[in-house]
Write a structure and sequence with these properties.
The protein is mainly alpha-helical. 71% of the residues lie in helices and 3% in strands. It has one domain.
């Protein structure tokens, strides 16, 4: 019988056990640090297991880097964010918030495990880079930036407005996306010659996130979780197109 996960890193019972143990430890740590609530920990555990089992330790390293970067950035200037009504809840992100950022990378890992096509590693990593880019851009912009500019009209809007961007936040977000891509490249998830793809796709996804926020979200047609999901999906799709045509 053909193994549908023949190309996955965890293609043996021993590696599946390792993936399960690492996932459990990661979920417990994330919960202890209040990065996620209980439901968020379960959703994160599922995504973590799929990433590690499918794409291997390099994917887990990129995920761990994403968690650290976002955990730190959300806590910078917490009092200021709290006064503006923008602070994340102290109990951490819920399941929908976690899945909005990690569902696309997890699917990329599954597709790599099923096909062995390394393009899916690039797409999954690009979605992770987008999640880092967008989160850090928003959090740093709220922490240190002045009033934002609405991406569609360039008018000044209050900090935290859907679709608002700042120069400082954008630069910090790009740096975060580069860190995620670099971690994966060092670990061998993607060739270093392809490092620019997730960085570029992640940045483009962040801009798409802002455009969706300034249009559909501000009108109440979709919520922030949907915006985040479509932005990661857009980053993955762009990365896929770049990877197969270059």
């Amino acid at each position: 019988m053909l193994n549908p996960c023949l190309h996955a890193w965890a293609s043996s019972p021993e590696r599946l056990a390792i993936a399960a143990a690492v996932t459990l430890g990661f979920a417990v740590l994330a919960r202890a640090l209040r990065g996620v609530n209980r439901a968020g920990a379960l959703a994160g555990a599922l995504a973590c297991f799929l990433l590690l089992a499918g794409a291997g330790p390099s994917a887990f390293a990129a995920l761990a880097a994403l968690f650290v970067i976002t955990w730190v950035s959300t806590r910078l200037g917490y009092r200021r964010k709290l006064s503006l009504g923008l602070a994340e809840r102290r109990e951490g992100r819920n399941a929908w918030q976690v899945l909005a950022n990690l569902a696309v990378p997890a699917v990329g890992s599954i597709l790599f495990g099923a096909t062995g096509n390394r393009v899916w590693l690039v797409t999954g990593l690009s979605a992770l880079a987008e999640a880092a880019t967008d989160t850090v851009a928003s959090e740093i912009g709220q922490y240190r930036g002045p009033d934002a500019r609405l991406i569609t009209t360039w008018e000044r809007v209050p900090t935290g407005t859907d679709g608002g961007i700042t120069l400082l936040g954008t630069m910090a977000g790009m740096a975060a996306g580069l860190v995620i891509a670099a971690v994966a490249a060092v670990d061998g998830m993607i060739p270093r010659s392809q490092l620019w793809i997730p960085v570029t796709a992640g940045f483009a996804g962040m801009l798409i996130d802002s455009i969706l926020g300034a249009t559909l979200q501000r009108r109440g047609w979709i919520d922030n979780q949907a915006v985040n999901f479509f932005a990661t999906l857009a980053a993955a799709a762009l990365a896929y197109a770049i990877a197969i045509f270059t």
